[in-house]
Amino acid sequence: MVVSMTGFGRGKSSGQTGQYLCEIRSVNHRYSEIVARMPKELNSLEDKVKTVIGSRVLRGRADVYISRDGLLPGKKRVLVDTDLASAYHRAFIELQEAIGVSEKGTEISVAALAEFPEVLMVSADEADFDAIWSDMEEAVTLALAGLMRMREFEGRQLERDFAQRLDTVNQLAGSVAERAPQVVTEYRDRLIKRLEEILPEGTAVDEDRLTQELAYFADRSSIAEEIVRLESHIAQLRETLEDDGSVGRKIDFILQEMLREVNTIGAKASDAQIGSAVVDLKVELEKMREQVQNIE
């Protein structure tokens, strides 16, 4: 089953520890990357959040945003970052000196310093985080479910588009396979006609030499092996589209192999009709390679 790497999900939950809002946005990415942003006092739950999301998001970048309303439950502790407060105070003095202000009453107070970000922080005991996670997990799970619904819906659209393009590729490959044997026959006719034009009247064509030339041409322009491999890749790609899990990289690899066979066919087959089919094949395969960049 094809799953897109782009999507969005949103979930809310509430309990004795507060109200929680979780939003998840995912985009295409070569690997799996989960970035969580949440209130600093909840950072110890980041691994739990990533584990839940990582169980479903196998590839792509997922940005997770979690907010909470309400006071943390249990015993509270006020933490003071004295180093940060001192740094703020030094910066204030440097600012006064830089702008030439030193009048009485312009000094910064302790109360003002305490209002600066992260000078004072409220923390809950570790024992409270089990209850917090119990309430917050529902918001994360709901957001993840919404994200996966969107990713799976877009994946179905991509899969339908792939199937249609793959049918086109299969038809073009069939037309190339059907045309290939005629190329040697037409080359033989052209060669005999040319020899008859340049040889003196009544001179017989050397059949042995003609046979050797045709054998050389047939060997040099043979695309039978490439056709067989291309048809095998088409069948393998159809099977991969039905597989579960992360299939994007495998599909991309198969498409690269298909494009390699098509390029070889174009280089070996000295025929306008096959050349035209090769161009159409390249167009379809390149479009599929663009699409696969968004498949998980």
Q: What portion of residues belong to β-strands? A: 15-25%
- Can you give the mean pLDDT? 86
Ranges where pLDDT stays below 50 over 5 or more residues in a row are none
Span from first to last CA? 10 Å
Counting DSSP E segments of at least 2 residues, the number of strands comes to: 6
Question: How is the topology of this model organized?
Answer:
Elements: E1 7-15, E2 18-27, E3 32-37, H1 46-54, E4 60-69, E5 76-80, H2 82-99, H3 110-114, E6 120-124, H4 129-198, H5 207-221, H6 224-241, H7 248-268, H8 272-292
Parallel strand pairs: 3-4
Antiparallel strand pairs: 1-2, 2-4, 5-6
Give an account of the 3D structure.
- This protein has 296 residues and is of the alpha+beta class.
- The chain has three domains: 7-73 and 127-152, Ribosomal Protein S5, domain 2, CATH 3.30.230; 76-123, no CATH class; 154-292, no CATH class.
- Helices cover 60% and strands 15% of the residues.
- It is built from eight helices and six strands.
- It has helices spanning 46-54, 82-99, 110-114, 129-198, 207-221, 224-241, 248-268, 272-292, and strands at 7-15, 18-27, 32-37, 60-69, 76-80, 120-124.
- The strands form two sheets. It has a four-stranded mixed sheet with strand order 1-2-4-3. Strands 5-6 form a two-stranded antiparallel ribbon.
- It is elongated, with a radius of gyration of 34 Å.
- The model has no long low-confidence stretch (mean pLDDT 86).
